[in-house]
Structures are given as C-alpha cells and as structure tokens.
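Hi R.,

Here's the chain you asked about this morning:
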Amino acid sequence: MLSVGKWHAAHCARYSGDIRAGAVPHLRRAIAVLGEDGDRVALGGLWAELSESLWMAGLGDEASAASDRSVEVLGNSTSRERAEALGWRSRLSMLLGRYLDAIPPGTEAVGLARTINASRELSRALNALGTSLAMV
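And here is the predicted structure, written out as tokens:
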C-alpha cells in the first residue's frame, strides 16, 4: 500500500531531522492517498503521526488539530493506533501545560494499551499520564 511507504518515508525523515520538508509532506500525501473513505485505523494512525511531526516542527496549533482529527477518525477502535493516538493526545496536552486535559486521554490510552498488550503504547501513555498527574 502506498500509504505505508509514505509513512516509512515520513518516519525516516522525522528522525533524520527533515521534519517540515520531509516528514510532514509525506504524511499529508499518505493521508490524501488513503482518503477519508480508506481504512479508518490506518488513517487515524497517520493523523497521529502527522500531529507528532507537526509538534516537532514547532507547529503546536496544527499539531493539536491533527491530534483531534486522529482521535475522531479512530473512534472506539480497539487498536494500537488508537492507544498511540490517545497517548499522544495526552502527551501533547502535557507538553502544552494542560495537565488536567491530559488525564482523560492518558487514562484511556493506558487502559486500552493494557487490554491489547501494547507495551510501547502503554509506556508512552504512562509517562504522559504520570507527569500530568504529578503536575496537578
């Protein structure tokens, strides 16, 4: 699938430091290729990846909007992508100093990650949730 290739290209670009010119455009193209009628889990995962890349590019407002879209697209799916999206939503709120806002998605991400045995997603969600709880 073309969107998987774009995701891998975006991931490589992000961690090489080429965020604005590489990662963000690759992810936007992958979302466009998949389309709104495509696989909702894959689409939601791409929106979450885009959100994180936008944050890393210093585009906080766009990152928040993309995170909201990710959670919306994923709905109530029981998937790693949803656990990751909720954990990222929590982490983004924490990074923005919105600690109370970080607690509900963090709590939901932890529960989902435990249910599906998603250790990476659980670790990331626990980090954001724990930090936010400590700050309130």
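One quick note: The chain has a mean pLDDT of 89.

Cheers,
M.
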